[in-house]
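Quick illustration, no need to memorize.
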Amino acid sequence: MRRIKRSALAMGVCLAALQLTSITPAMAQEVAVERSMADAPYWDSSLPVAQRVEDLLARMTLDEKVAQIITIWDSKGEIQGQGDDFDPAKAARRFPDGIGQIARPSDRLGPSSPRQVPRRNIEDSIQYVVDAQKWAMEETRLGIPILFHEESLHGFAAKDATAFPQSIGLASTWNPDLIREMNDLIAGEVRARGVHLVLSPVVDVARDARWGRIEETFGEDPYLVGEMGVASVEGLTGVGTDRKLRDGQVMATLKHMTGHGQPESGTNVGPAQISERTLREMFFPPFEQVVTRTAIDAVMASYNEIDGIPSHSNSWLLNDVLRGEWGYQGAVVSDYYAIEDMARLHKIVPDYKAAGELALTAGVDVDLPEGDGFENLAASVREGKVSMEQLDTAVRRFLTMKFNAGLFDNPWPDLALAKQSNGAEGVALARKAAAQSLVLLKNDGVLPLALPDAGGTKSTIAVIGPNADVARLGGYYGEPRASVTPLEGIRALVGDRANIVHSLGVEITKGDDDWWDDKVELGDPAENRRRIAEAVEVAKNADTILLFIGDTEKTSREGWAPGHLGDRTSLDLVGEQNELFQAMKALGKPVVAVLVNGRPPSYPAVAEQADAILETWYAGEQQGTAIADALFGRVNPGGKMPVTTARNVGQLPNFYNYKPSARRGYLFDEVTPLYPFGYGLSYTSFEIGAPVLSAKSIAAGEGVTVRVPVTNTGDMAGDEVVQVYLRDEISSVTRPVKELVGFQRITLQPGETRQIDIAIEPRAFMMWNRDMERVVEPGDFTLMVGPNSEDLTEVTLTVRP
């Protein structure tokens, strides 16, 4: 079909030329070019992708090559007409050499809040893609299709798409199978709209809770982050390493390489003062696992610098390690505006032109989201600042993505399929993911709440707090067809079997809590104290108080500019929320604190005085239903913390896999965390028996299996996450006191016992020695098994030479 269209186009040009009174040599040459392109080998889908790429690359002009590796987002208005529709005439004038990539076709404009500039609906989004693609394939000289990308961190960030829990909540499920299933559904929703690339997952290892982007991560542990990252990519692209995209799947982008998760002072894009050893032990492993085990197509460099070298100019990072040591074959894309940041922020080059030259030389292939860094590359080639070979390498990688995606063969959306987006299947999966993400941090016998049978004596439940009647989705959010607030979920479940009363209590931030807003202004203290008094009146006759507190999408978020901040110097509740908690506690009623946030809940007063604490994170569109199910025992919380919870900011950075010389202690304060990594309670009880190894001694390069019996000793079905940690007893360089090397989430009925086998891979015993070589040093290793990183049973394993 594609070749017929190109041939018809060439024929039309030829007939039009014959009608002219005179045909110039240039006109005749253009007709010949169009005819030759119609039958060019790069249109032949039977040929190997590499051959098609080389054929196309050889036909491209310098300007056409550069056009392929830049993107359009801010300048969408220059290619759009009335109603923000795609305008082929404008596109032809502004981008005569074609368009390589368009960012976020669901957005009408560039950087703007969907609350201020509404996103396109499904029909409009698809029409936009079709119009742009038809122009690119039928009206540009070579007919190279456009690659569209979207955000999908925890769901397709578009209108009428399924919204899942934020990433830190997904990490709390400790369930890679669920993450794989969820991302497969996301891929289907994205692909149906004609989009073939998403900017996810994030596999940054987050080791500083002040950092506002901690919510976007899978936590602090490289093994957990790696397994969740692999599962995410397998869901998006399909299982395996074949990079030819399958129907219903999308290409994924691995973010952000690397060291991003422990910035100086906890401030976004700050320098990462991290040694090579720590990079290799803690920050590289998730990236390496995804690169070597999946069909990942794009890797995004990080904003930060390491040892004075910004990642977008770090050839050692992008070429030596990523492409050399790990054998990565795909493209490296820039983070948004990060190439330009090397001039305006890092100050290592004088202008954007020099920044583009430096980035291309270092191994960055594509400029996102606008192309200001790469738009002068043609001049740079002509001036000899970068070679044609370097440019060709970048273009070759990007064209390979397009051919692997099938864009030259069938780039079209599927409207009928797209209209099914966020349907019953998505809603059910969102509810399941939300339920599994919930972490019970404390329970003094208050939960689960009981409801009388119909006709029984009604209790009164006070649902209080600024997060009670809002469905907070977290950053990079989509817009589901419907979402359920906690208050709505509780009312729906309880019905008329209890009296539900509600009060706001405090306003955390003024306005509508839009993640996109630059200004963040806390609620008025005097007005909040009036609200607290109202809440006391509402709650004073209640039997139980459910207090929904935490953050908003404004009080903890990505700080992407000096005028748009999101990192914090304190981890405690902001505004008058602590006063609200104390006022509720003073009523003498059981207080259940329900935390709604994107960062670890370091709320010391709440932790000490609340009768129960349920961490819910930003639990997606079905959060209200899932939270209600958990509070009333329809669901038994089984999530585990993917981060260590510090008692206060003075303990930071605080992570469980520290070195032996760390955590000696503090004057006048605790050194232990508020909640350890891997922690989470249940409404039932579990007994994890003594671990047994498949062998007491193994050779270097071998793995081992840990078998352990797990029994549900309570009277309610529930989930337990069995966790296996490892410690190298004697090593030539210092090693962490423990490292997660395996885990498994299981569901057990009351009284049920199951033998669990967890395979520990050979890589778990490897380390980087003094010569920075990855080796296994023979000796004794301690394997530890338990329900979290502190309550562990040990067994010794010997590794032979």
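Residues 1-35 have pLDDT under 50 and may be disordered.
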